[in-house]
Amino acid sequence: MQYLSDKSVAARYDIARSTVWLWLQKGKLPKPVKINGTRTRWPLADLEAFEQRQGGAA
């Protein structure tokens, strides 16, 4: 499974990293997972499923 950092998510949607966290707070992104208890990452499959539900855009 592939995981994306907040920096990668920001690049994917062409937004600032701070916007990633704002969108997360507003429920506009799926919840990330913790890897090794410290790193926050988004599973790519979760983002792709989210995009499908949103009609292709976040």
Notes on the protein architecture:
Helices cover 47% and strands 17% of the residues. It has one domain. The protein contains three helices and three strands. With 58 residues, the chain is an alpha+beta fold. The model has no long low-confidence stretch (mean pLDDT 93). InterPro entries: DNA-bd_dom_put_sf, HTH_17. Pfam families: HTH_17 (PF12728).
Q: Descriptors for this entry?
A:
3-stranded antiparallel beta sheet, 58 residues, alpha+beta
Summarize this structure briefly.
This protein is α+β, with helices and mostly antiparallel strands. The chain has helices at residues 6-13, 17-25, 44-53; strands spanning 3-4, 33-35, 39-43.
List the helices and strands and how they pair.
Blueprint lengths: L2 E2 L1 H8 L3 H9 L7 E3 L3 E5 H10 L5
Antiparallel strand pairs: 1-3, 2-3
Helix pairs in contact: 1-2
Pfam family, one: HTH_17
Protein name: AlpA family transcriptional regulator
Biggest beta sheet attributes = 3 strands, antiparallel
Distance between the termini: 21 Å
How many extended strands? 3
Radius of gyration over all CA atoms, rounded: 11 Å
Query: What would the average pLDDT be, to the nearest integer?
Result: 93
Low-confidence parts: none
H and E order: EHHEEH
* Helix/strand structural class: alpha+beta
Protein name: AlpA family transcriptional regulator
Domain Helix-turn-helix: 3-54
Organism: Aliidiomarina iranensis
InterPro entries: DNA-bd_dom_put_sf, HTH_17
